[in-house]
Amino acid sequence: MKLKKYLVDKLIEMILLIGFMIMTMSVLLALKLQTGILILYFFLCILFFVPVILSDYLKKRSFYRELLTNIERLDKKYLVLDTLNEPSFYEGQLICHAMYEINKSMCENVKKYELNVNSFKDYLEMWVHEVKIPIASLLLMCHNHSVDVKKYKEQLRRMDFYTDQVLYYVRCEHAENDYIIKEVELDRVINESAQKNREDFLAGDVALKVENVDMKVMTDKKWLEFILNQIINNSIKYKANNRESYIHIYAEDFKDKTVLHIRDNGIGIAASDLPNVFKKSFTGENGRKHAKSTGMGLYIAKMLCDRLGHKVEVLSEQSGSEADDNSESFTELRITFVKNDFYKVR
Amino acid sequence: MKKILIVEDDLSICSELKELLKNAGYEVEILRDFSNSKENILHANADLILLDINIPGLNGEMLLREIRKEADIPVIMVTSRTSEADEVLSMSYGADDYVTKPYNPTILLLRISAILKRTEPAEGRLRYRDLNVYPAKGVLANENAELSLTKNEMIIFKHLLERQNRIVSRDELMTELWDNNEFINDNALTVNISRLRAKLADFGYENVIETKKKQGYILQ
Fold it and tell me: What is the CATH number of domain B3-119?
C-alpha cells in the first residue's frame, strides 16, 4: 500500500478538510483577529488533520500489506484468509467476511467437481475390469478354435493394450493406495512384459536381447510391467524397416541406484521432439509421418515413474538425411531406481 | 487324470476354459452354485482350483481364506483386477499363483502344469525310453554314451517329454522358451527343433519327434 496512491484516493476528504480550513480561516479573518492567532490556528488544524489521515492509513496499511505479501508468498493463494489476523477496522472485516464466503462457495463447487471426477474414475476403473472379461473370453475362443486366428488375436491384444492404457491413465492421476513398492526381481518383470508382447516381437521380426538384469529393484511390479509394455510397444511400432531390428534391455548396478536401459535401433526421435516426448498428447514427427500415435503412452509411463520415484530419461539420435541408411539412429529409455536401505529393514 | 475346478461366474469364459483345459488333458468341473461355495468346492475334491475374485456371494479372496482353513488344494486366482495390492493380498491368503485377465491361454496352461508338478510328490528322475534326462546338465545318457543338448534344445525336449504322445503346439514351445528367458524367433525355433532331431537321430533315435502339420510336434 503506497502513501501517494492512498492520498490520491482520499482526495475528496482532503479537499473537504482544506475547504473547511479555508472557510473557518476566512471567518476568523472577517473577525479581524491577529495574524499570529491565524497562523497558530492554521498549524493547529494541520497538526490535527494529518494524524487523522495518517492513523487511518497506518491501520489499513498493516492489514493490506499482510494480505498482499501473503498472497505473493503462498503457492495456494486461496488459503490466504487463514494466514491473516482479524482486522480491527470495519472495512477489513467486511473484506474478510466476503473472502470467506467466496472461498466457501468455491470450495463447495470444487468439491462437487472432485466428487464427479472421482466417481467417473471409479466407474472407468470398474468398466476396464468388466471389459477385460469379454476380451479374455474372446482370447480363449480364438485359442480353442484355432483356425488361422492370428489376426483376431492381434486385434484383441490391441484392445487389451488400449484398455490397460486407460486404466493406468486413471491411476497415474489419482492413485494414492493402488500401488505397493517392494523388492521386485527385474528379470521376472521383463520376462512377463516380453511374454505379453511376444507375438508382436515375432510378427514385427524384432529381436529381443536381454542381458544382466538379474537383480532386484524397489518398485511396483504391475506398474513397472505396464511402463515396459509402453516402451516396448513404441520400439516395435517405430522400428526401422531397412535393417535387422532389435531391442536391447540391460541394467547397470551402482552403489546407490540401478539403471535399466531399453535401447532399440528404430527410426529414432527428432532432436526437436525429444524434450516433449513425455508431454501429454504429444505425437511429434514420428506420430505424423509413421505409425499413428495417441501421445499418451510415454506420458502415462512418466507420470507412473514420478509417482514411484523413478527417474526416466530418453536419449535418441536420428542419423542425418533420408538418403542415409539410418545406420546410427536409436532410441534409449533409461529408468533409474534409487536404492534405499530404509525399505529393506523389516 | 487331474481334476480342475473352475469357480467363475461368466458363463462364456467358463465354457471356453473348460474346453481349453479338456483339450490339454484335464478333467474339468464348473462350480454352478455360489450360495454355498466353500462346501461345494471342498466337496468337489479337485486337484487344483481356478478361482475368480469377483464372484457372487463370498468374494474370491474371502473364499480362499475359508478354503485354506480346511484344505491345502492348490489355488490359482484369476481376476481382471490388475493391482499389486490385490495380488499381494491373494498371495498372503495362500494362493499358489495369480493370473490376470485377459490371460494368454498357453501361459495359463503352463502355470497350471507347473503348480501341479510342484505339489506332486517327486517321482524320481526324468526318463525317456532307456535314457536318463539331466535337465540341469543338459545331458541325455544311457549306460554307454552321453548326448549333450544346448539349453534351448533341452527346454524343448523336456517340454515334449512331459507331454509325451500328445501334440505340442509351436506356440506352447515358444511360450516355454520365452518363459525361460530365451527370446528366440520363429526361425530359431525351427532350427532348434531340426538340430534336436538330428542329434537324437545320430544317437539312434530316428524320427522320434514327429511334425503334425499346422498343429505342432509330438514326441513318440
Answer: 3.40.50.2300
Q: Which of the listed residues A52, A85, A118 is the one where a domain comes to its end?
A: A85
Tell me the one-letter amino acid at B10. D
Which secondary structure element, helix H or strand E, spans residue B13, and what is its range?
A: helix B11-23
C-alpha–C-alpha distance, residues A123 and A157, integer Å? 23
Which residue shows C-alpha cell 492567532?
A37
Residue A234 is assigned to a structural domain of this protein: yes
- List CB contacts (< 8 A) between A133 and chain B: 10, 13, 80, 101
Asked if the ipTM is above 0.95, the reply is no
At residue A334, what are phi and psi to the nearest 5 degrees?
-120, 125
Amino acid at B211: T
- Return the residue in A191, A195, A208 with the most chain B beta carbons within 10 A, the one to mutate for interface testing: A195
Query: By the CB < 8 Å criterion, does A139 face chain B?
Result: yes
Q: Among A3-17, A61-75, A312-326, B127-141, whose mean pLDDT is lowest?
A: A312-326
Phi and psi (nearest 5°) for B102?
Answer: -80, 125
Whether B104 sits inside 8 A of A187 (CB atoms) is no
pLDDT band at A318 (very low <50, low <70, confident <90, very high): confident
Classify residue A34 as exposed, middle or buried by CB count within 10 Å of its CB (0-12, 13-18, 19+): exposed
Q: Name the pTM for this structure.
A: 0.81
Final residue belonging to a domain, choices A85, A115, A149: A85
Q: CA nearest A209 in B: which residue? A: B183
Same domain, A330 and A210: yes
Q: Say yes or no for a CB contact (<8 Å) between B80 and A130.
A: yes
Chosen CATH of B126-219 out of 2.60.40.3410, 1.10.10.10, 1.20.120.1200, 3.10.450.50: 1.10.10.10
- Tell me if A183 sits within 8 A of A343, measured CB to CB: yes
A223, A194 Cβ separation under 8 angstroms: no
Q: Are residues A67 and A192 both part of a single domain?
A: no
Could you tell me the residue range of the domain that residue A79 belongs to? 3-85
Residue B120, Cβ neighbours under 10 Å: how many?
Answer: 11
Q: What does the block give as the cell for B166? A: 500328445
C-alpha cell recorded at residue A315? 536419449
DSSP string, A270-334: -TTTGGGTTSTT--HHHHHHSS---S-HHHHHHHHHHHHT-EEEEEEE--S-SSS--TT-EEEEE
How close B132 comes to chain A (CA, Å)? Answer: 30
A105-164: per-residue pLDDT in tens?
999 999 999 999 989 988 998 899 889 999 999 988 888 886 567 788 888 889 999 999
The residue among A325 and A67 whose pLDDT is bigger is A67
Count up the domains in chain A and report the number: 2
